[in-house]
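Incident log, entry 3
Record: N-dimethylarginine dimethylaminohydrolase (292 residues)
Problem: checksum mismatch between cached and fresh output.
Input:
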Amino acid sequence: MRNQSQLIAVMRCAYIRYMRVPMPRHYVMCPPRYFAVDYAINPWMDPDVPVDPERALRQWTELRDTYRRLGHLVDEVEPQPGLPDMVFAANSGTVVDGRVLGSKFAKPQRAAEAEHFRRWFVENGFRDVTMPQETNEAEGDFTWTGLLMLAGAGFRTEPGAHAEAQEVLGVPVVSLRLVDPRYYHLDTALFVLSEATDERPAHIAYYPEAFSPGSQAVLRRLFPDAVVADAEDARCFGLNAISDGRHVVLPVEATALAEKVAAQGYEPVFVDISELRKAGGGPKCCTLEIRK
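Fresh output:
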């Protein structure tokens, strides 16, 4: 990693070249008031490793406040006792053009979260809310690029949910197969740096080895200019990032990835999610985006 002054110089030159423009976003989050690791439903979880709920809450609060400092709207959902993973709001629904496709969790430990979030959508004015028939873990495995939806399968979301999402949300869906159990959701291996516009295509970052060979070929064809992350980027949940088109919020450990995105004109914004990562989550996992 270059020193800070070198990174700033890279960012300035790249920003002039690419002119990355931030777009205001609307996020939904859920405080980790009942956060714990009482069970293991992904390779990152170990109930024998101590968890500090107060530290997790401080990290979550800093993430929320970072979004607000960047000019984004953040709504909060009331957490519920007995649902320690409810903090990972990205798994609660997928919203495109105001249409909501709810979630249906693969693991029984999280199943009750779906109804709490469904009620939140209805109580907050969303009238077009569909609860799925197929298992889908929402933005964990559905990533909107501005023109099409990338959809992951292999560990949580079922392939049949991809067709259901296309019917409910009315957008084209491209299926991708995940093959590494550490990257059990699409949002642990890929994120959108900037959405597609009339002037230019979407720009993404991803970790190729998380995907099957065929899915890697699809990603290369669709996104030839993608930022390609390495194993170290992936292990620290660097791909579980959030971008508003200019600012990229990512874990403090993801220094190599930060340098790569800075060279493309984006501005890295670091947050500490080390406590939340003990449950297999990062910035994106904590963040559901509302697209109206």
